[in-house]
Amino acid sequence: MLTKFETKSARVKGLSFHPKRPWVLASLHNGVIQLWDYRMCTLIDKFDEHDGPVRGIDFHKQQPLFVSGGDDYKIKVWNYKLRRCLFTLLGHLDYIRTTFFHHEYPWILSASDDQTIRIWNWQSRTCVCVLTGHNHYVMCAQFHPSEDLVVSASLDQTVRVWDISGLRKKNLSPGAVETDVRGITGVDLFGASDAVVKHVLEGHDRGVNWAAFHPTMPLIVSGADDRQVKIWRMNESKAWELDTCRGHYNNVSCAVFHPRQELILSNSEDKSIRVWDMSKRTGVQTFRRDHDRFWVLGAHPNLNLFAAGHDSGMIVFKLERERPAYAVHGNMLYYVKDRFLRQLDFNSSKDTAVMQLRSGSKFPVFSMSYNPAENAVLLCTRATNLENSTYDLYSIPKESDSQNPDAPEGKRSSGLTAVWVARNRFAVLDRMHSLLIKNLKNEIVKKVQVPSCEEIFYAGTGSLLLRDADGVTLFDVQQKRSLATVKIAKVKYVVWSSDTSHVALLAKHAIMICNRKLESLCNIHENIRVKSGAWDESGVFIYTTSNHIKYALTSG
């Protein structure tokens, strides 16, 4: 898990990502709603009008609006551009648990402890439908992403699916006469109701806290106080329980489908977030906090980002690193994507698959070292437990069919990092943090005693850069001695200019530019994360942060 952003605040009960901007809304147990920029790590605004905890929160997909619902029985619709509450919807008789906008119609869906679910029209500011049938608090209710359905979860131990097509036909058909025909009951003259229960899903042994639809498949996920996450399938006529994911050891507060992968995320009052493989029903990853129970999860609609709210704030995170491993040689970029090594020609912009990589690692390739003399690559894979990291040595096939590229046999060994040091030699930093020199057959040629280091980087033929916690050392592999050292903490990336006369050392918030002898020429500090960099032909270093492209001259 890669934590991108963390906040400290009162208990977070509700979360919503903005569909386009790098924003996340957090509704708190103390009545405040916070609007955060998770890329800049700043609080943009806060909205403090609710009395008591705010549990429901949701951004509108198109309009500059969001909706909130709280323990004061009020639903509030806000405009974040005008920075104020536009109006309040009254009608619920107890705490409001969730509030969601419809993706298309001008509707808000609210679930409440008064055992009802209500649908409101936020343009006419009226309640257009009350869904009754649960006989305990309704903890959650959500619209289906494309069909006229609602799913709800209740402490009466059921999950219900409601058909709301009648409501759509009535309220959104041209010339519908609404007020005079219908009685107060929400049933019109011909007895057709606006919303009917389609399925009642029974299977949880305790109250259900959350239920959500799958974005594209006819599936529902639910989480309950029986500590289980259940997957349900439905068709036109019935719905049934597919599977149960067991592993949490306290109430499951929230469960969602990953928008683009066969995964489910759930979190719980047992202070953990768990990731489940949908096909195998097994836990893939678990993330724990020491003291904070988790209450809510949010998935970004189009990025692989998630947010989780807990007792003392929230975290925005990714499940895995998405930066591809790459290497540049002349006008060619080599990079890894979807188990293929690909090649992009900068001149012709032709992008082809060069070879297929062997699978067998559940971790993405972390880094690559390319050897143009032998047309060979070293691909390093980082495991969560660093000692299990491996590298693969491949020689790239001469001619390859880009539709169906070869899958040559690679040589795999354990090691944290592997880097070329000569035409037919490469260096491996092994799990004991000692340095091995190997040949093209992946056989150890010699072992080299090096100063303690936790990472190695390319530094031209016969040399390496060794990184320790507070500096980088230029090391001559032939002479087995250190040539120079500079102080810079936690270097993540090293970028050499094409003639290797200059090198840029990139840390999280700092850049140091040095010459070939590793003498520092200039230092740059950034308040925001430094992401990557490249040298221009003219000797200018161009680099990116989370939200800017900048440049630096070697003179500083």
From TrEMBL:
| Keywords assigned by UniProt, alphabetized | ER-Golgi transport, Golgi apparatus, Membrane, Protein transport, Repeat, Transport, WD repeat
Q: Where found, per UniProt?
A: Cytoplasmic vesicle, COPI-coated vesicle membrane; Golgi apparatus membrane
Identify the stretches annotated as WD repeats. 47-88, 89-130, 131-165, 201-242, 245-286
Query: PROSITE patterns this protein is in?
Result: WD_REPEATS_1, WD_REPEATS_2, WD_REPEATS_REGION
Residues forming the COPA/B second beta-propeller domain are 341-556
Q: What is its main location?
A: membrane
Q: How does it sit in the membrane?
A: Peripheral membrane protein
Ranges that cross the membrane: none
Q: Which InterPro entries match?
A: Beta-prop_COPA/B_2nd, Coatomer_complex_subunit, WD40/YVTN_repeat-like_dom_sf, WD40_PAC1, WD40_repeat_CS, WD40_repeat_dom_sf, WD40_rpt
Q: Which domain of life is it from?
A: Eukaryota
Q: What does this protein do?
A: The coatomer is a cytosolic protein complex that binds to dilysine motifs and reversibly associates with Golgi non-clathrin-coated vesicles, which further mediate biosynthetic protein transport from the ER, via the Golgi up to the trans Golgi network. Coatomer complex is required for budding from Golgi membranes, and is essential for the retrograde Golgi-to-ER transport of dilysine-tagged proteins.
The protein depicted here goes by the name COPA/B second beta-propeller domain-containing protein
Species for this entry? Ataeniobius toweri
